[in-house]
Sequence to fold (414 residues):
Amino acid sequence: MQRTRWERLRRAFWALPAAGLAAGVALGLGLPALERGLGGGGGVLAFGGEPAAARGLLSTIATLTVSIIGLAFSVTLVALTLAAQQLSPRVLRTFRGDRLNQSTLAVFLGLAVYALLVLRSIRVAPEAFVPGAAITLALAVTVGALGLFVAFVNNIVISLQPSTVIRRIAKDGRAALAEPREGEPARALAPAAGPVIAAERAGYVQRIDAPAACKALAAAGRRATLCPQAGDFVGTGDPLVRLDGGEPPGEDLAARLRATVSLGQERSLDQDAAFPIRQLADIALKALSPGSNDPTTAENALDSMGELFGRAAAAELGPRELRDASGGLRLGVPGPDLGALVRLGIEQARGAIGRDPVVALAVLEALGRAHRAAPAEPEPARQAGLVVEQFDATGAPADDRARVRERHRELFAS
Fold:
């Protein structure tokens, strides 16, 4: 589960700021002490002013950085609120994981603490001491931090554009679909009919360490099927693993199998190929709601969804089976196939099309990409037929209905 912990840390908004704070403390205590130990010589570029001037300069830097930290937090909170209202609350993880936002707060927090600690080291009597090199470093970092703040504000403005959010979700989706999948594809999992290992706590399945589960089963000489798949919510006491055979598992095997299923309070993109589709569907639904009425954003979300459908067709999704070193079947792992992803992304959006031919055509284009990538999968064609039927039933102008039917024939003629 090391990868899951790293993913949580990478997405945590506090991680980089905490690192910046720690770096500021270390440098603020270490550099003046080092400079004092070396006799106070900081080189030709070191600050050469009097203690009073040094104190004034560091006080100004500390005040400036604290003020900018407050402004940066305010701007970030406003951006998060607007994104949640205009797009979907599920896109907040995109903002939380933004490296530039985290880095800006880290630099300014570290600089504020660093300036205060260097200020503390200045002495007037009995022996004057001004850490010139440390003050010069504070000045240089301040100049760089102000440039970083400009980039931060620009990044916030760009991040609020729906197209930017959609592009980032699509990028995450491509990465999730490119994840290597353990085991071999299976048409359907053979149902296990033995005792169940229940979850000891509630949460969303964020990652499944299938090879470790297969190894534990092989050591115990058992076979099992996982009940949830990545992205599913599991309640306390819900089935987590179902074993073959009637003999209850030992405590050691039960503990090892529970440990291979990582649960968290929110869904993760680590193995959850359906999550980016869910996010794009949410954005499309929000954009098509009467309160937003933003068909362009819906069209952009559907276009990106269609691209992910095409990639999903080549990603060997669906249930998988893992074998041990001797070739014996040990573990069945459920997973969504292309048809399930198409239903997830299109069914709700289909109901919000209304009489807008542009949105109807965008839905058909997304389904057409899925159909071209996997002609044998019937779900895209089925959903496309429902789109045409539903649009015809809205009473839209005859020309618009004819356009939608014609595009449907072009995309699904083969």
